[in-house]
Structure formats: C-alpha cells, structure tokens
Design a protein that fits this description.
The protein has helices at 2-16, 23-30, 34-40, 44-61, 66-73. It is mainly alpha-helical. The radius of gyration is 13 Å and the shape is globular.
C-alpha cells in the first residue's frame, strides 16, 4: 500500500504541485480515509520525502536514462 500511496501522490504532485496536494486528495484517489494514509506516512512531507528518495535511487540505478526522465518531468 505504501507504494500505491507514493504513486498516487507523485501523480498529484506532478499535476498540481506539492503545495496544492493534500492528504485528502491522495486518500480520495485511493478510495480510503486520510487516517488510513497516515497509518503509512506521518505527514504529506513524509510522502514527498519518500518519493524523492525513490526517484534518487532510480537515478542512481539508471544514470543513462536521465534524458528520458527529464522529458517525463516536463
């Protein structure tokens, strides 16, 4: 479930921005309560930090794919 929360949060962050995305937005997209999201992450910032760590691991594992990554980020 953590991975799914991260995926949905990342989609929202990319689409409308981190500051405009709420835990309620993420929970609604997942069809769960905010309390359920908070069981996995203590805050919205914790979700953002986990996504950043995941992206950094991806970058280290695939340094040659940065051009495609930047294109995907818009």
């Amino acid at each position: 479930m953590r991975a799914r929360i991260q995926e949905v949060a990342e989609e929202h962050f990319r689409r409308i921005g981190h500051h405009k995305t709420s835990v309620a937005d993420i929970a609604s997209e997942l069809g769960m309560s905010r309390a359920n999201v908070y069981r996995f992450f203590p805050s919205r910032d914790a979700i953002k930090e986990s996504i950043c760590r995941r992206l950094e691991r991806y970058r280290r594992a695939r340094p040659h794919d940065r051009t495609q990554e930047h294109a995907a980020l818009g």
